[in-house]
Write the structure tokens for this entry.
Amino acid sequence: MLRRLFQWLDERLGLTTIHDVVLDRKVPKVNWWFTLGSASLFLFLLQGITGVFLTVYYVPSPDHAYDSVQYIMNEVRFGWLIRGMHHWGANLMVLVVFIHMLRTFFYAAYKYPRELTWISGVVLLLATLGMGFTGYLLPWNQRAYWATTVGTEIPGTIPIIGPFITSVLRGGSELSALTLSRFYSVHIWFLPAVITVTIGLHLYLVIRLGISHIPDEND
Amino acid sequence: MNGEHKQRYREKYTNAKQKGVKFFPDIIYKDLLVAFGLFILLIGLAVFVGVPNEPKADPNDTSYIPRPEWYFLFLFQLLKYFPGQIEWIGTAVIPGLAVLALFLLPFIDRNPYRHWSKRKLALGIMGTVVVGIVVLTLLAAFTTPPQPEAAVANTLREQIALGEELYALHCVECHGIEGEGGEIKGVPGLEGVTLKPINDQDVMYPFTDETLYNIIAMGQPLQGMPPFGRAFGGPLSPTEIEAIVAFMRYTWDDRVELPEEETVAAAMPTLKEGEVPSYDVHVAPIFKRYCVSCHVPGKKNNNYLMRTYEEVMTTGDHAPNIIPGDLGSNLIRMVHREEIEAGGPMPPTKALKPELVEILERWVLGGAPETAEQAAQASAKGAPLPTAAAPTEMP
């Protein structure tokens, strides 16, 4: 019975092909540093899951953002755990993604034929930093407010176009409800969409080209 | 990289693959192990370190020292070396070039070799950048002065306590210790002005939290109350004003009740087996919370007043309502919701929680001591446990 169900599904989904191409493939013998990529992916998924739970109660308006976070921390059952994991997961993800980049650099894995994997990786690194920057404002506490104030001032120093960039980021000359809703939207829709698509490309390339081997003295 | 190098690389890689392992289970196993480790680490951080609580954003607090997240600190520090006119070199040119170089790295680095011993230049540059980032981050972390301590409340109870403290500091002079108002003495400019109470239903019922917040923040210029919000030139942050509002609401508004887990029982020291509660520590908070809103002069209460130990023990048309050592005392029977000569079930609308009733029973049975010392003496004598004598049937 199970066998017939599997065959039915396999005929339509191509499960055997997926198994052969993705799982049952030979890769060079590598060390533990090569787990950082999948660790980044795992952290991204975890941030996605905890983030979705946080949106249930979070309200992106200056009047309610802080109180809704307090509510999550004090009233919602296990809200403190979800927020705590999201908070620390964000810090850890920046660290893991950065070390993943250093590992790739050290083993020269960005060279032929993996140039595009590297470029998509740079997009992912920058998007991760963007997630950190936009997410930091959302609790609307003192630390968040002032970090974003200085953060959005920085592009304002660029000659000619600087002030325009700052006003686009803030939605006006000062931090306001508009800034918060812009950051929220970028944090939960724009950047996750960019990251998801780029991870798709990144993974496709990793599976297609195989993970790089550790170079020996002749390489 | 020319064709010959590419060819050589492909052969080498095919060779490495053949000597290698299967993606499943070898690689997947390691990946899952690391993911699991990170998961445990995150739960540990969330449980044991938590998220530091910060006061609410206050755009008018110019004393707050702004700083970005730790992973942007190096950039923050870098900017300090480009003051004034050349600031944009630090803010735009250097980060812009760094990002561009990162994107184009595979095309900038034309060196066909991959082993570290043949890539000393590339590794040297990257090493310098990483060391630079670390040093700048550390410099920023050590040179930024510590943030001045700001008041934060983690729980509602802490918030109320903070509000009480701030009320005592900023409001008592004019509004009185209990918000009772009266004639102001010793406040320049307001000497002799008489204030209405702010602790009664006339204020608590019509004014929402938001109204109270705004009155404190902006003041009442026409009546002579100065603004207290920082936005209006006063000393208090939004967090602090909210704490005062919470204190007023939960202390003076007889309609609100603390959430269950915050009730009086949770706040008072827990009683040990056989320990006798005292009026001061255990019983007064219960009376204050549940009884005194009616048991004060001028209300329908058979003249039973409950503001002090003296009143509790002696007043009332059916005095004494408490007979030390007797669980048949009026008070105990009425909190058990019995209808007796002295009156009906108390509190009239809602039964006391069983743990509070038990505290009252243990107190009466232990001789209804006033102070903690008297209670300790009674405990030492080994007062009988209420469970032995208390009426077990609950109506």
Summary: Chain A has a mean pLDDT of 94. Residues 35-209 of chain A form a domain with the Cytochrome Bc1 Complex; Chain C fold (CATH 1.20.810.10).
